[in-house]
Design goal:
globular
Amino acid sequence: MQSRFKKTIVPGKVDRLSKQKFKIRKDKASEIDADIDIAEDGDYEVERLSLEGLPEKMEDGTPIRWFTNFAIKKNGQYINQRYTVTIPGLSSPKSRVVILDGKGRLYYYSGTVVKDTIELTDGDPGIGTGP
């Protein structure tokens, strides 16, 4: 199943800190920088994707504030392996983390948020909060 959302690469917004660590820099003032730490060693390509066209609300009507959108690839394919994402303010008790996965499914993150960090396996997420 393909995502129904267009993936537009935003060039010049990814800093490679090591083979497994990346900083995704914000593109607009409403966004927040994100740190990516991939558990497995490997040769990864990380792309910053635009937030344009992402859903504005959850199915339950909750408005979404998008922080970042990116893709992680290995050998030209989106990864399906463990990595962490750290976004300042993600631990806020006033909101729930929202994920848009690579197949276009929108859901509330059910894992634990520890020190503004979540663990994912989908190599093509959009991340935000609601409300």
